[in-house]
Design brief:
Blueprint (H helix, E strand, L loop, with lengths): L6 E2 L5 E2 L7 E2 L21 E2 L14 E3 L13 E9 L5 E10 L5 E9 L5 E13 L5 E5 L5 E2 L9 E5 L1 H5 L11 E6 L16
Parallel strand pairs: 5-13
Antiparallel strand pairs: 1-2, 3-4, 6-7, 7-8, 8-9, 9-10, 11-12, 12-13
């Protein structure tokens, strides 16, 4: 094919839209062709199969969240925000931030969970914090972080750092491999007093 439009089929064989399979010669570990001097160059061609290959997953390390929490909310009102992240073996994981309006003025309590494929939430133990706001709606401070939250993050004084244990992630993982702990820097905006807080994240 001139377009090079090959995709793996259900067996991992590379095939184009016309049904033709990509052929190639088997290689030694050093990249040379197996039996190059003696083989028939046509009859020794094999279908290229990539089922045995895997790539190194790049897990999520940073998450920026922009959300507007309603100023008209009363105590115990809740809002949710769902975000997809990826663990160390490439599995998508859905984080759910549940925001509960506190009885304290201009404060919301946050709890982070993992959603499974059925939508059932599993709380990440210690993944809780409070978000406080100025009267103008800008972020004032992030306080009262639970054990799974480092405040501030070692990487940025304005961020939180969330650690999701491998055991919690494993419940949603696919395949035989177990993901590592997932450590994510959370950018929820730039906190500060009235006039210095910014509406660049939570508000």
């Amino acid at each position: 094919t001139r377009s090079g439009a090959f995709e793996p089929d259900q067996n991992g064989d590379l095939v184009n839209t016309a049904g033709y399979f990509l052929q190639g010669w088997l290689l030694n570990d050093d990249g040379t062709i197996v039996n190059a001097a003696t083989q028939d160059q046509v009859s020794s061609l094999q279908t290229v199969n990539i089922a045995g290959f895997s790539s190194i997953a790049d897990e999520t390390q940073n998450l920026s969240l922009v959300a507007n929490l309603p100023a008209t909310a009363v105590a115990t009102d809740t809002e949710t925000t769902n975000v997809t992240v990826f663990d160390s073996i490439g599995n998508p994981q859905t984080l759910q931030f549940t925001w509960t309006k506190s009885a304290v003025a201009n404060e919301w309590n946050a709890a982070v969970s993992l959603l499974d494929s059925s939508g059932t939430a599993t709380a990440i133990v210690g993944a809780t914090f409070d978000a406080d706001f100025n009267p103008d709606g800008t972020l004032s401070a992030l306080n009262n972080a639970g054990a799974a939250i480092t405040n501030p993050s070692p990487n940025n004084a304005n961020f939180l750092q969330l650690t999701i244990p491998a055991a919690t992630l494993a419940a949603n993982a696919t395949g035989a491999s177990t993901p590592d702990d997932l450590v994510i820097d959370l950018n929820l905006g730039t906190p500060g007093a009235v006039g210095t807080g910014q509406a660049d994240g939570l508000s």
